[in-house]
């Protein structure tokens, strides 16, 4: 502890041994119940993190659990569109009710609160971080077994807010095959380690493409190194998603719940 400590950890950048990480946790709404919380992170944008988040929630819902998605990507929300949810979230004096997808997955996203879902969110970091906290503490989550938090890419304000404010059971890292991504994955893993949150698995999206004519597997974005990266970083579970035009089409049409995607079965089993 510094000699000049004012005991306000929220305003301090020091890593004091006396600081309790749990002191930053935001309380859940008194009438909400959430079991396991899994963060879905990526070191860079455009790797399909929101699609993986949606598919993991769908997988757990199909197993008979009650799944939910907290869309923490405030400036780039895409969860409602993937599920075809366009109505606005409702609330009362007690809090906000999450929207529900066709299969019953509970979701909360800034797009459910905007007058028009195409309106840009032009906010500074502290306001965005405050909104993410509200999605956790002011939403009436209904007996959720598995919540997946779709985070914005990188290691900035919002991922840090989620790591500190929400009791994460672990994270899943989404990546792509490019050689450069290994370094970016390592940044995300090191952030999780610094925040004492376990890495439960890594998903390599756009890993390969199977030609419909010759049925051969092509590594469009280069050869995969995800197993080597996972082994070096001690990540227990690896999943690979191919380039699947049909899956992308269903996501764009808001029909992701009708997608058949066995590629994440091992990961969802590990999450159980």
Short summary:
This protein is of the alpha/beta class and 272 residues long. It is built from 8 helices and 10 strands.
Explain the overall architecture.
The chain is globular. Helix content is 28%, strand content 16%. Strands 3-4-2-5-1-6-7-10 form an eight-stranded mixed β-sheet, with helices on both faces. Helix 3 (125-137) runs parallel beside helix 4. The protein is α/β, with parallel strands linked by helices and 272 residues long. It has one domain (31-271): P-loop containing nucleotide triphosphate hydrolases (Rossmann fold, 3-Layer(aba) Sandwich).
Question: Which fold name is given in CATH as the topology?
Answer: Rossmann fold
Radius of gyration: 19 Å
Distance between the termini: 39 Å
Specify the helix fraction band.
Answer: 25-40%
Category by helix and strand content: alpha/beta
Q: Say which CATH homologous superfamily is assigned.
A: P-loop containing nucleotide triphosphate hydrolases
Strand content: 15-25%
What is the name of the CATH class? Alpha Beta
Uncertain segments are none
Estimate the mean pLDDT confidence: 90
What topology, given as strand order, has the largest sheet? 3-4-2-5-1-6-7-10
Continuous helix count = 8
Shape: globular
Number of strands: 10
CATH architecture: 3-Layer(aba) Sandwich
As for the number of domains, it is: 1
SSE pattern, N- to C-terminal:
EHEHEEHEHEHEEEHEHH
Largest sheet: 8 strands, mixed
